[in-house]
Specification:
With 463 residues, the protein is an alpha/beta fold. It is built from 17 helices and 16 strands. 38% of the residues lie in helices and 17% in strands.
Amino acid sequence: MIVNSLSLCYHNKLILAPMVRVGTLPMRLLALDYGADIVYCEELIDLKMLQCKRVVNEVLCTVDFVAPDDRVVFRTCEREQNRVVFQMGTSDAERALAVARLVENDVAGIDVNMGCPKEYSTKGGMGAALLSDPDKIEEILSTLVKGTQKPVTCKIRILPSLEDTLSLVKRIERTGISAIAVHGRNRDERPQHPVSCEVIRAIAKTLSIPVIANGGSHDHIQQHLDIEDFRQATAASSVMVARAAMWNPSIFLKDGLRPLEEVMQKYIRYAVQYDNHYTNTKYCLCQMLREQLESPQGRLLHAAQSSQEICEAFGLGAFYEETTRELDARRADLLAKTPEAVEKPAEDTSGIIKMAIKFDRRAYPPQITPKMCLLEWCRREKLPQPVYETVQRPIDRMFCSVVTVAEQKYQSTLWDKSKKLAEQTAAIVCLRSQGLPEGRLGEESPSLNKRKREAPDQDPGGI
């Protein structure tokens, strides 16, 4: 049996489970702060990862894997490099190996998801769908073990019969993987069904590699001491915690759970420091608040439409402003040191009308944007629709857009975090230079409001 020699130790460990939308960098760092030994990222699909480019983000001091649409698919940092396991969704051995080689220098281990029962995973032959194809399981894991220098693991669910389950895990062990995580439910069971500790125990007694027990949040794990009780009940080497850690990641802390307010503030600080998208931050905080979502703070969180508004809802407005200034200063310093890396908005900027403007979503009604106002004005004036040309600056991945209206170009001198924001900013420059309403709260734009009433369900398509 081949065993990868560069092995992350999986004995007697507390592990943050892979969780979709939850296991991003802020949550992983927070779990490490509270005592987790190993943290798994959320499942990331092989095809999506293979489109990504590895980018060193000098502003955030991170390594980013960036998709063609400039979305960060996976972000990691030096702090977790020796403790983060990259979990992929795959149904193909060669794709799996290509992904492993893409990320192996930035992570501590590689894991294959073979337990997710959700349709988005199984319909592509991934996740729990692999449990019915042992040959493919063997091919994927054997290829990874032989082809990467990092320890390889997999996470499975149990099969309907104990005999079939034990037969499968023995075959998996022979591929040379370093450990196996077992969720003690079958693919048709959900959290309300009891976890099968006895099946995990049987697996642990059968295999010589570490077995990581998972699935105990609903029935067993309410506080830190329960983690060890669950480990003993399953005879597992280690325990992987999912929802109990999502609700309060201080579950890993030996001294007991910390107050939720403290935990959420610490999470928000990481989210701001590492430029986590506000929608992901908001989702994770909602999971923590749970039954408190209808509280005054929960309602403020629900209404938040930016990282700044989330910070303000939790009394961290000053922290947001200070951190933003620090990141902007770091960005400016890097640009000053590497001027050759700065892309200009256009080769010939003569004749471009410029203003130093930023787009603040809070200043506009939910259904109205400057781009919509500009498009409506062009239609009324029977002009061609606006044309946006947007470039990205390689050094910090910031965006600048130039909009052309009636052969005149308009541009903000300030760069934005996304292509959409840069285009909105360019539209504002055009509207203000023409003295036109831009849709801000308190402004009247009768024809635009009329169009919205006539087509309330129309998707503005990023306008």
